[in-house]
């Protein structure tokens, strides 16, 4: 019954999104097959925008980031008729600053990164889509993991041990677990002996494997703590043969949080916004084979989101900043926790 319901919903969404996209393309005078016109031949909103610039963070998914965004790049070029460029930044903050300074039109970023961008840009940036699995999961978790051959089995076992965060602008790798620990009466700045930033989810798992930390926070999705997870940094590395899932153990989780949104600058022509939003929403149905190339789970699609869906992240970030300002000497270090 549940599966049938999901399929039915998706069929309605597919029809709705494709019809909407066709209408938008018709009204904007844009062919769905894209355009190979040089910039000098673009007209209307296409000429005004000129190109579509996408931001990708290298720290999030390591070498897979560029390959995934190249798929989006080719698809959006075909639909919008614009030259589409992908710009990589070493971390989340690079994407946020590029978006805030008007150098990007589109990006996908975590809850915390969006909260940061929202605080800087206000209504000039908005989330519009987030992924959802065939089972209806539209959120993810922060998982605290240790090596399976370690003696650590609970959060309490890690008191006085070293911890690896991902990035100050990471939701599952920094902001949300710190907020959740405080809700449980645990001060993350004093509970662990040493902390450091790894620079990315993949880097965190590999640093744990190499003994740089006793535990790390990582992104986990495609399930729940009760059912187990099928997606996330550890599982992506395992599929590549870099690690074995059985070599690690989850000792604590926080979540779920809403999936990382696609965000877009709102101070661009309305026709551009409509076409881009419609193209992204229609991708799972218009080009389902691309979803495989994007490393998304089979049956996944995109669902509409609004700023209200991510307000909790904005509030958590404000609370975290207030905590750090109140105790500046206790901020996590940026060096390695172990030699």
Provide the CATH top-level class of the largest domain: Alpha Beta
Helices, by number, come to: 13
Tell me, rounded to a whole number, the average pLDDT. Answer: 83
User: How many beta-strand elements?
Assistant: 12
Low-confidence stretches: 1-36, 330-339
CATH superfamily of the largest domain: Periplasmic binding protein-like II
The CATH architecture assignment of the largest domain turns out to be 3-Layer(aba) Sandwich
Topology order in helix (H) and strand (E) letters: HHEHHEHEHEEEHHEHEEHEEHHEH
Spatial gap, N to C terminus: 54 Å
> What Rg do the Cα atoms give?
21 Å
Classification by helices and strands:
alpha/beta
The neighbouring-strand order within the major sheet is 2-1-3-11-4-12
| Proportion of helical residues | 40-55%
Number of domains: 2
> How much beta, percentage-wise?
15-25%
Q: Major sheet, described briefly?
A: 6 strands, mixed
Task: Predict the CATH topology of the largest domain.
Answer: D-Maltodextrin-Binding Protein, domain 2
Report the principal-axis shape. globular
């Amino acid at each position: 019954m549940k599966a049938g319901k999901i399929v039915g919903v998706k069929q309605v969404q597919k029809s709705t999104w494709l019809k909407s996209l066709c209408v938008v393309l018709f009204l904007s005078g844009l062919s769905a097959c894209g355009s190979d016109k040089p910039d000098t031949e673009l007209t209307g909103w296409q000429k005004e925008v000129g190109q579509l610039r996408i931001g990708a963070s290298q720290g999030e998914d390591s070498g897979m980031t560029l390959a995934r965004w190249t798929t989006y790049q080719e698809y959006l070029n075909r639909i919008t008729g614009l030259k589409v460029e992908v710009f990589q930044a070493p971390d989340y903050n690079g994407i946020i600053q590029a978006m805030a300074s008007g150098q990007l039109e589109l990006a996908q970023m975590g809850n915390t990164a969006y909260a940061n961008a929202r605080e800087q840009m206000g209504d000039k940036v908005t989330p519009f889509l987030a992924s959802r699995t065939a089972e209806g999961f539209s959120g993810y978790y922060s998982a605290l993991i240790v090596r399976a051959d370690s003696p650590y089995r609970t959060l309490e076992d890690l008191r006085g041990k070293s911890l690896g965060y991902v990035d100050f602008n990471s939701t599952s790798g920094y902001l949300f677990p710190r907020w959740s620990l405080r809700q449980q009466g645990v001060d993350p700045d004093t509970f662990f002996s040493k902390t450091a930033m790894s620079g990315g989810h993949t880097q965190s798992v590999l640093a744990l494997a190499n003994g740089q930390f006793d535990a790390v926070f990582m992104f986990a999705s495609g399930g729940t703590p009760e059912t187990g997870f099928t997606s996330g940094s550890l599982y992506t590395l395992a599929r590549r043969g870099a690690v074995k899932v059985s070599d690690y153990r989850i000792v604590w989780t926080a979540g779920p949080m809403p999936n990382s949104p696609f965000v877009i600058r709102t101070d661009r022509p309305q026709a551009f916004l409509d076409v881009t939003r419609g193209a992204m929403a229609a991708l799972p149905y218009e080009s389902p084979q691309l979803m495989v190339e994007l490393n998304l789970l089979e049956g996944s699609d995109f669902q509409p989101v609004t700023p209200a869906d991510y307000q909790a992240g904005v509030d958590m970030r404000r609370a975290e900043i207030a905590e750090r300002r109140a105790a500046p000497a206790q901020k996590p270090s940026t060096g390695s926790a172990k030699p």
